[in-house]
Write a structure and sequence with these properties.
Layout lengths: L27 E10 L6 E11 L4 E5 L6 H8 L7 E6 L2 E2 L5 H10 L1 E4 L11 H10 L5 H14 L15 H13 L5 E5 L7 H18 L2 E5 L11 E6 L2 E6 L1
Parallel strand pairs: 3-8, 3-9, 6-7, 7-8
Antiparallel strand pairs: 1-2, 1-4, 4-5, 9-10
Helix pairs in contact: 3-4, 3-5, 5-6
Length: about 250
């Protein structure tokens, strides 16, 4: 297993510990994953031995009632939290017990994240919000800006590139957030209820944007949703109840 990065310089794509697109290897594999919060009488078992695989280029919808473990699962898969037990493998590599410094580099260069709240920096333009994570990898400004513009054009936001978040609708802000999540060319994109704050029309545009990225760029996508209608955007479905998978469909 190679090091993620050498000391004294910014991480690059060549520093990733995983090898995306390895032939016959799942993009993501989960083995007997459990997460318990607290201890003793107040312990809460948010995940209970969850196991599944996601193939490269797949798009998976994760559903379940409030408290079923959807967001907890996404946090484990996205290396935002550490499981109590079990394993998470990215392109065949177990990343569960990596040091936080290495997990951070994987989050920056190999994984993308879209949150319900957009999380855009209000003082920056849409374009600047998108290319900021690219600068964090040491990519030159000119190259980062070009990539940001390409993504914004792809998501029908080219004419909004110089607008700040306060000048954008909710749906436009979420598409900017999606472009930002894609700027470092992740192989896996996680979206936690990306349409939760949007109206029906804006939700449709956001989900269409995700499926377009999946089809045209080949990014593997896992998204959490509470809207049954959004199952139609996925190739596969995982339904959780009380921290366990109760349904899985392709």
């Amino acid at each position: 297993m190679s090091a993620l990065t050498r000391r004294g310089r910014s991480p690059t794509r060549n520093d990733l510990v995983v090898a995306p697109g390895s032939l016959g290897v799942p993009a993501l594999e989960v083995r007997d994953l459990s997460r318990t919060y607290g201890a003793g009488d107040v312990a809460v078992r948010a995940l209970r031995g969850v196991s599944f695989q996601v193939e490269p280029g797949d798009i998976v919808c994760i559903m379940g009632k409030s408290g079923s473990g959807k967001s907890t699962l996404l946090r484990q898969l996205g290396l935002l939290d550490a499981p109590t037990s079990g394993q998470v493998l990215l392109s065949g590599v177990d990343v569960t017990r990596l040091r936080e410094s290495r997990r951070r580099l994987l989050r920056l260069g190999h994984l993308g994240y879209v949150f319900q709240e957009y999380a855009l920096l209000p003082e920056l333009t849409a374009e600047e919000n998108v290319y900021l994570p690219s600068l964090m990898t040491g990519t030159p400004l000119r190259q980062s800006r070009l990539r940001a513009r390409e993504l914004l054009e792809m998501l029908d936001l080219g004419n909004r590139a110089r607008h700040r978040p306060s000048e954008l609708s909710g749906g436009q802000q979420q598409r900017v957030a999606i472009a930002r999540a894609m700027v470092n060319r992740p192989t896996v994109l996680f979206a936690d209820e990306p349409t939760g704050n949007l109206d029906t029309e804006s939700s449709e545009m956001v989900m269409t944007a995700l499926t377009r990225l999946n089809e045209e760029l080949g990014v593997t996508i896992l998204f959490v949703s509470h809207e049954s209608d959004e199952r139609r955007f996925a190739k596969n479905l995982i339904v959780l109840r009380d921290g366990e998978i109760v349904e899985a469909k392709s």
